[in-house]
Structure formats: structure tokens, C-alpha cells
Design brief:
Layout (H helix, E strand, L loop, with lengths): L1 H45 L1 H16 L3 H24 L3
Length: 93
């Protein structure tokens, strides 16, 4: 029973990671497109991790928009918490 419940939390963590990751990608591509245009999006995909770190803070500072920051970092924290709970419940066997 513990393994089943732990696996459920892990699956929820993975699903939330996929959902928030794709949602964050779409929002951040919109932010980069608004600021730098199409070529900014192309460069953003080449520097993919930098786009995920810098673009949410840029949207917050320049536009006062918290949504990209909440989606990217809040979604990552939620994913880590769900997966961590699943790992703690299922334990080492």
C-alpha cells in the first residue's frame, strides 16, 4: 500500500512537472518574443536554461507581471515537493 501511494505522488509530481514545464515554456517564449522578436526566441532556444532563469525575473521587473515567475519557480517547487513526498512514503526497498 505504501508503494502504491508513494508511486501515486511520484506520478503526480512528474505530471505537474511536465504541465508546468510546458506552460512555463509557452509563457517564456511569449515574453522573449515580446522583448526581442523572433530572433530573440531563436537565441533563447539556443540558450535554453538562461531563458528559463532570466525571463521570469525580467517580466517581473520590467512589466510587474508575477505570472511567469510563479509558473516556472512555483511549478518547480510544487513538482519537487510532490515527488519528494512520494519518495518518502515509498521508502527504500
Amino acid at each position: 500500500m505504501r508503494n502504491l501511494l508513494g508511486s501515486l505522488f511520484k506520478i503526480l509530481g512528474v505530471i505537474s512537472g511536465i504541465v508546468f514545464g510546458l506552460w512555463g515554456l509557452i509563457v517564456l517564449v511569449g515574453v522573449v518574443n515580446e522583448v526581442a522578436g523572433f530572433f530573440g526566441v531563436v537565441v533563447g532556444f539556443m540558450l535554453f536554461p538562461v531563458m528559463f532563469v532570466v525571463a521570469p525575473f525580467y517580466a517581473l521587473v520590467a512589466w510587474g507581471n508575477w505570472l511567469p515567475l510563479i509558473i516556472v519557480y512555483g511549478g518547480g517547487i510544487l513538482t519537487a515537493i510532490l515527488y519528494g513526498i512520494g519518495s518518502l512514503i515509498s521508502g527504500e526497498e
